[in-house]
Fold each of these.
Amino acid sequence: MSTTHGHEQTQGHDQQNGTAEEPATAPSAPPSTTTDETALELLVHGVGGTTPQEMLDDPQPVRVSGDDTAAVFRRGEDADAEARPDDYRGKPVPEAYVWCNLTSGNGSRALWLLLLPFMVVNLSHWMRPNARRRTRTVRLYGLLVRLLSLTLTVLLVGAACEVALDLTAWQCAGTPACADQRAWLGFLSVDAHGGGGWWSQPGRRLALASLVPTALAVLLWYLSHRTWSAYETQRPLPYMPEPTDGEIDNALGRPGFWYGRRLVSRLRSAHTAAALLTVAAAIGTSAARFDRASGGPALLNVLGWLVVGALILGTLAVVGVVVHRGRSESRVDDTLDRTVVRALPYAALALLLVTMVYAAWSRPGWQSSGRLPGDTSFGGIVLTQGALVIALAFVAHAIYRTARDPRTALRGLGGPATAMLACALGGVMTGGVAQRVADWLDGTSGLIKGPPVLLTWQASVIPPLLIVLAALCGALALRTARIKKRETAQVAVDYHLDEKPGGTAEPPDAARTSRIAGTRARAALTDKAPVMIGVVSSVTLLLGALAVVGAWTTGKVPGSAARGSYAVVQGAADSAQALGSWLIGLGFILFVTWGRRAYKDASARRTIGILWDVGTFWPRAAHPFAPPCYAERAVPDLTWRMATWTQATGGRLILSGHSQGSVLAAAAAWQLHPSVRKRVGLLTYGSPLERLYGRWFPAQFGPEALASLHRQVDCWRNLHRRTDPIGGPINLGGECGPQVDHAALLDPLAYGRTGEHPLPAPILGHSDYQADPVFAEERARLLARLKPGVPQQRPEGEQAQAEVQGSSGRSSG
């Protein structure tokens, strides 16, 4: 191995461990090169992950740089390729970047499934419509999402308080008949005469039970801190990748975009404090209310008011921290917030301990009956979430009007719709846990009141929502059948089945044609996802409002007695509530079972990993307890590798990305210095860059951003199939479209048995693009176009188009 390559490997290894010295300037010009220079193809896999053995077709690949979590591999025979350029004339040296362990590496990550609402609401932050410039409206959008995320934290911890404090410690332990059924509640229970042991007083029971939601809050804080130190602290390139003249300022190219160290730390402090304050409020307000009503000792009254006042001040401090600062992307922000912000969780914990001592004070006359005071808190959370979602919709619409794009999902309302789904998921999980625990403690005996009225009413709206979903699925099935019929005729055209067969070709087969047409039709369903999510979100918002109205007007569960003209409505609500409660319980059991299976089964864990591959690409900009953003490790990895390799060799580089790997490749290309970016060719296949990311995340992957990326890299080619449910064309306008998108590849490669394909060719869909001969042809074209050392001149038509677009960008600026 040459000295240069050996030094480059050592440098990459040191950078992974954070010990390498940062270069003071960008590699603006490569060293002198020759035509014998080695070319590099950096492969980035897609969702679900794979192994370096499969990517490189080598049983014993060599790790070039990285660690057990994410690394770059080469074939053993290619380890010293830079020292033998003559052996690689006309072909690239393949390298594989394997990042699958960032999302689906071990069984503990299956538990992230419980954090699904946090991940979904974090996605809504990035679904903001595209805006011509950063305005107050854009900042208001991010602020509303951060506040909505805060309510989800309070809702989750509130559900834990409902289970531990209300259902268990207050209701069941305070009811002798219920406590007798649970021997482990004996030391907390009261006897038939209202007496009992030291722990039988309600305040002491609540103080002890509060350890459960407190442990949950501490666990969330610990997981967030652990992932923050592993992901958000990975430094990007030390030099600023400034945009070239006439190009838009895309957020993905800003130096601080993939470095959320400060914001996640700040939000973690606020959300941890909010969780602890929620527990303190559940204990302290109940005790303070009893002290005021009973006219107890003056000292306890004073302490009660002090606790309530401290809770109010703590809430204002938490909201202030969340409101005060958003993301900082224009620079790499290494600083952390002041001690006051970092000390906020510890202050909330101290207040919680004081509240526990205050609640545990002896109050002989205090007895628990009914539900725990503060039952209306869930209604307040739901109303706050509804108001925030509606406000977010108005803000998103106002932003969309500044830069209309018909391809944007739901005309800019994709973010509010997704935020509504996050709230619905949180509500279903909350209601499911409370309902199942109540049934487990009490069964059907009716000894305790059960969960809050609102949670019971929320269960009654699930059957109507399922009916709407069934109607949507039926409509999509009819549409798929119509598309399949149309595609059946198109298959005959694509494979020339109307021509007279000759040679060894097989005649048309109706079953084969139906399978191909059906695969194409089902793949087209992806484009209808915005409609489905929009309808479900709207219906969920409406039914949620009806549930709040029902809980407020009745003040009792839907199954209570009804008279007169309301008997029919009450009976329907009663049946819907029973069915919804059963469905919530079933869903919660399936949810836990799936997570448990994923913990033990590697294949199931990989399936969940696919979900995280798509959902955790974005940084944690709204919720710090969401699963960590793997791209904050993967994008710097790719950027460092490309920058150091081109600086050391001055060679040609093809960045080859499949599926989600193409998104990582594009994000990494934006982070490169313009001089390096001009020496990179981009090859994407099965790419969701426009079909999914461009529609749902227009501010980062809209048409302007993708067109800018096409002009900034030396060349870009994209391959797609009509049978692929994920990938699609880039759909750039003007002359850029044919320059980027290849015509849709035939899938399968051959309709029947032929001389070249004596066995039936499979329908590949989203996988194995390398099996198509077009893949090798397009890769060879990219390599031929990339000159060693300096970028090749664009064709005249493409250069003119780039100049026109650049002039237009400067004029609009």
Amino acid sequence: MRSARRILSVVLAAVTAAGPIAVHDHHAPPAEGRALPAAAAAVPTGFREQTVFTGLDQPMNIEFAPDGRVFVAEKAGRIKVFDSLADPTPAVFADLRANVHNLHDRGLLGLALHPDFPAVPHVYVLYAYDAPPGRTAPYWNDSCAGVGGNAGGRCVVTSRLSRLDASGAETVLIQDWCQQYPSHSTGDLHFGADGMLYASAGDGANYGVVDYGQLGSPANPCADAPGGTMAPPGAEGGALRSQDVRTLADPTGLDGTLVRLDPATGAGAGGNALAASPDPNARRIVAYGLRNPYRFAIRPGTNEVWLGDVGWNAWEEINRVTDPGTGPVNFGWPCFEGAARQGGYDGANLTMCESLYTSGGQTAPFYAYHHDAAVVSGETCPTGGSSVSGAAFYPATGGDYPAAYRGALFFSDYTRDCVWAMLPATPGGAPDPASRRTFVAPAANPVDLAIGPGGDLYYADAAGTVRRIRYFEGNQPPSAVAFASPTSGAAPLTVTFDATGSSDPDPSDAGLLRYAWDFTDDGTVDATTPTASYTYPDGGPYTARLTVSDSLDAHDTVTLAISSGNTPPEPVIDTPSGSPTFAVGETITFTGRATDAQQGTLPASALRWRLLQHHCYTPQSCHVHVAQEWNGVAGEAFPAPDHDYPSYLELELTATDAGGLSVVTTRRLEPRTVDLTFVTSPPGLQVTVNSTVRTTPFTTTVIQGSANTVSAVTPQAGHAFSAWSHGAGQTHVITAPAAPATYTATYVKQRLPRSGLKIRSVSTQETVDETAPATRVLDGHPGTYWHTEWGAFLARYPHEIQLDLGGSYKVTDVYYLPRQNLSHGRIANYEIYVSADGTNWGTPVATGTWPDTTAEQTVTFPAKTGRYVRIRALSEVAGRAWASVAELNVGGAPG
């Protein structure tokens, strides 16, 4: 099992506005007609989480205007605006759904207001555009079924950065960011203290395999360098787009970068590190080598950018760009993850990564946390999977939070459902990774953090709410918790209410809470006891409001929806039936219906389908993201998406009646899996499968039909890759078969590159035959040779030749190829030495006799570290007048 996302990418399309989808192995809905309270967030003493806005459809980004308005971007493409924090009914500021590609992680994710808003009434958006390069939206109409699904590498889109005016009219500033896969899409937007606009975006690559651009049909849809079908070592596609600015000889893309822009034009801002480049995209880039920089924050009063970059299988990163005028900064993806080399991409021996390993230039994360480790020791936040999903700085001055939080960086993780604070070590200083605190645990699907009016922290909950974390100095308000049963049914409907779960954090208020029930929300208090009942007549829906007050009149309020004279609909999934299974790429057809006691059979317009992808780190620990949605249909079909294992699919059908009551039913689809076994010859060497390097032999379980990138790590342990048992190249893709399979990578002893070897000396050289200098033993041609002086061998032996390896190596082998003409001389008895300095040789590492043959001979011996190798010929094959050598080479590893 691979432990990471891995992402996620960041999924970010988590759950319905009605509430989060359970991610347990089985999905038991609440008892019918009983309203349950949401789980309370655990926050530090003095803080309280409050829900500000509800009823949103996958809110992704929140922005606060100086005039009190609050803008919320929904993933599908609508921007809603609330007149104030007290406004429960937003207006639609702009509807971009026809242009936005809303599928999987793609959607409207970035939102920013001009610094002088509303005097300059510009709203900026960053979103996936629903069309391939050169085409016009709507092209895909949020569905990739026609080209094999969203994970097949054929549903290609670009992304847009646009400016909206006061009426919502759109002006496109940039259209770029080619995205071959549905994850690692666009990211965030913010203005710096310099008035420039900053934007981030992911690499648009496959999140399940090592992706250098080899997947998809037609090949290379993003026109990545060097062109045509991508293959190692020269490929620059897939995740390597994040390194594109390093190769300025070809046009530069913006995938996997942070850009700094002139907000009026979208051009690269003056002062950028590459402002003088002839490439317009290079002029925009201030940081690159990013996988999925989903959210970032700019430190107040500065242009420092603090990026949260979602990792693959191991590390989540917070990266710091201290000065956008220097660099640009390379954070290393995909060659690095965290501070270390990424095993999958390292194993593929790609030139873009190998050159980075050699030359350096990668900047390590400011802070990184491993998927298997807690961010704060002893906290309740789960481990095993991660996706950093929010970043916001608390003001250095002002605000109601305690002084320790001034200048702190808040960051969140969608998969772990937690928010942390990284506090400055000194007042006015930068956040210190050693000063981390758990701030909200659990949080509700956090996908964006923002500081709002009064300095409070707000976050967008992908399930449909916006939440605020408030601080109360001194007396704290109570927490109102209410149950109602039933919440719907035939009229007259008698409902029992229970508020005994309410509490107050102040010990002095224990037992002193006061309750006020307003069963019809008309301003009249109907009951003042913790439990009560009320009978509702036909009509409604009704809202019951509970207000709980403490001894100092601080209070909290909660509402419950009651529907009298109406019962919930009953949705049914007809197909797939039973316990369906799938392999990647199989077409799955689904159909369903719903009936209602009041309306009869509901029309298709009352139905909403969603395909949920559950990605698990253990059988008990999963996160969920929406792979696709269908609204207003009784049935449809989709190709089963590719995903690493363990994972499973779930079809969700929501039926909503005319009275607004909704019921959800689901059907789980289990993948059909297969075991793939990897061995090496000799055994015990390493092979990379997707993201992970493992020592053979090992077996991994994958989904049938899934794509899996495999690399035979080379060189390693004195060996070099020779061949796969199934005839593939060193790095390739295996489409998982239906039956278990074994794949063997054969290795040969590693030979040092001839380009690094030199002749140090020879004891004798034939002077008559000038075509036989000693350098011939290193030219790679078996037909050329060096030999000793003719006729002098017996009188002058032992003869020798010395090799300079050019550096220190652990030498384990010497390869000797005799001259191919049998009538000429060959070495018979020999000695081999290895020396660190070329002076002190010690005892031979090997002695022996070579047979009278033209076949290459290999001498293997225990590893000895040195730079110089000496081969001594003690005697020749009988009857020959000299000793000849066609080729020499040495095996070993850098030492």
Amino acid sequence: MLYGRTAQQAELGKLLDAARAGRSGVVVLRGEAGIGKTALLDWAAGTASGMRVLRVQGVEAESELPFAGLVQLLWPIQRHIGALPAPQAGALRAVLGQGPAEAADRFSTGLATLTLLAELAESGPLLCLVDDAHWLDQASADALLFAARRLAAEGVAMVFAARDEDGFAAAGAAELRLPRLDGRVAADLLAGWAFAPDLRDRIIAESAGNPLALVEFAAGQGAHPGDRPEAERLPVADRVLAAFGARLAALPEPVRLVTLLAATGGRSTPAVLLRAAKRLETGPEDLERAERAGLLRVGADAVTFRHPLIATAAYQGASFADRIAVHRALAEETDVPDCRANHLLALTTAPDDQVAAELADAAGRARRRTAYASAARLYERAAALTPAEHVRAERLAEAAAAALLAGRTEQAADLALRAEPLFTGHHGGRDDLARVRSAVEFERGEPGRAAEILIERARHAEPDAAAEMLRTAAGHAWFSGRPDPIRAAAARLRELGRADASVQGMAHLLDGDPGRGLPLLAEHVESARKTPRDGGDRLRAIYGSVILGDDESTLTLAAAEIEEYRTKGLIARLPPVLQAQAQAQTRVGLHRDAIASVAEAAAIARDTGLRRRAEELDVVLAWIAAIEGDEERCRGLAHAATDSSRVAADCALSLLDLSLGRPEQALRRLASAWRGPGRHVSVLMASAADHIEAAVRLGRPQEAEAPLRRFRAWAEGGGIPWALAVAARCAALLGEGEEAYLRALELHRQGGRPFERARTELLYGEWLRRARRRSAARAPLRSALATFERLGAAPWIERTRTELRAAGDDTHASRPAAAVLTDRLTSQELQVIRLAAEGHSSREIGARLFLSRRTVEYHLYKAYPKLGVTSRRELAALDLAGR
């Protein structure tokens, strides 16, 4: 029976009922040690009728073992792994040690865990209970939380139990906090104990409403740490810990020793514990005595403690010599290499080549299984025990690389700093160290420094490694707006006989020569579209197409890259490519698609800890808000811009100001941006049209001349039709008249950015009306209105309608049906519907979007009524292009 937990039981009951109805949910039980979290999990398991129950428990002794927690989950259900997509099945088999570890993304295991839970739920609702989650190893915690955040309509309920103070972070999950019991409930709990009233009252007061303390202090009949005055200053959980320590201290030494052995061995099998016990001259009779004392339970597969605090008390209360002896015995007798490494790590304090080598081997296994945080720790400890300085340097560098892959940027920086002075000469390990240090600086928002590190190291590296570093350095330097590192990278690549068109192109652009720079970028982009390249080269081609303003190439290259990442489960690599895709989708008028891309990228960035990326994604949405004239949303999104996206945010705000009739503010903002370090970026170049129009509206055309010269040179250098069209439009604004407008419209017909085409049509229509050619003005104005309405560009719609009325046309276009349809859908529904309309199965869609089959079908059935259809067959007949 549970005391004082009615509210929490009701909430957990709702969670279970929802899972039975096919809706997934996650909750975290929070509270101090002994507050009753495990009892609530037991209650949930006991009331989960009709549900399959899986249970995982974090163990303090295994908190550093890679995937120790996840193995618990997988072991009884491993026969289901074969039903998963091959990369996911491979990731989980690697966790179990049943196959090669080929995964490169630490989140691929979480994705596989999600898919596995969803597969299990196909045959009925599932309850997954995770006790003592604060002691889960990091790799298991990452995998389980990744799965938990992406559950939706599978019929899976997940409950984590964690202590308040121990830092188990589960952002986004609902929490249930367990309060202490009040005096009345505490008295009810002790009702079966025959105590004198004063002793009962004392136990209740000492326990402070903690259920475990009540039971333990009652069992001791008042002989507990509260008898000592200093105990009154201790937190109640520490008093219970001290009470357990006192009980252990009263036991014979062999029983204490075997209890310490069980506490140190984690989930070691009884056979392993008994072999280790023999080395310590204890045996099964002592283990039995510990069980009779109510400290632990001996099962067929493991020895478990009645409460985790008993294990903590056993370890903390032991002498240093006993701890070392126990770790040594377990290291000799364990059958698991990673467990042996963990024990060796605990018992070795002086440099030892053999132990260091074993720890490095364990680190390598952890890294191959994507347990990068564990790998970093093991490499670091291996380095500390390594006598030879050059080997110690290599292992610290390995630790730094693993920490970076684990998302622990500052730890990586510290390890790299420690490794650097240990390398001598031109050791090859310096290359990897330079890459780590550069990546750290880039993540810190110092792209210029990141570039310098790689350029300096490239002077001493082998040609192939040097070329790769120099290309990466050029990309970093571009974001810093500093031309010197890019010039240096371009020159060094030529010296190596590896001249690179994209690097040289960027150098010319930063020198203010788009006529030479953009054709080189276009050459690289075209080559990448035609010929398969390595991942780094494709990414550079995507960024090159963004610089060019070649939206079609951006979409083509990004789609191919995203497809590969989805197929391989390389989740953490998706956000920057999805961001580039979203930017291009915005430019080509696919606003809903862009919002969907941003939503997916933001969810992944949140799950993978890419905070800066999440902030940059907001700027893409700020552009859409600017086009739509949503001032509050645009300003809110732009406010979150990082240094690297500040110029893009300012350009979005300038467009908003221009659309809302504030040309002075738009002009001032853009003029300021041109004087800053980001003046080379393509988004600012493309905003030259806003700069020019603002100056013309203010009657200051002289302030538009320099922007027009820059933009015209950029448009002619790239040769992209939409850019050439906008350049002609701007020339028309500055006096070249109708011929320039007609030239602009002809170029727009070659395709490109519809918002810019509509603006050209609007300006031409206004020009015709002012020239008293009202009849001729109507056609371009109507075309502009249709586009603005499709894009939801409210200020531009109103401005165009005003012009149409002045031109004698009171009619107005209606938004296309596709835009109306797609506006009814959420971002996730839109992605699912589009893929379903292309003929993909629910399972295929789930694999692409990292969702379960049931969640895909949930989104489909939510979307069908919004679209007025009842089946997949009817989707193909809809125009879902939208805006």
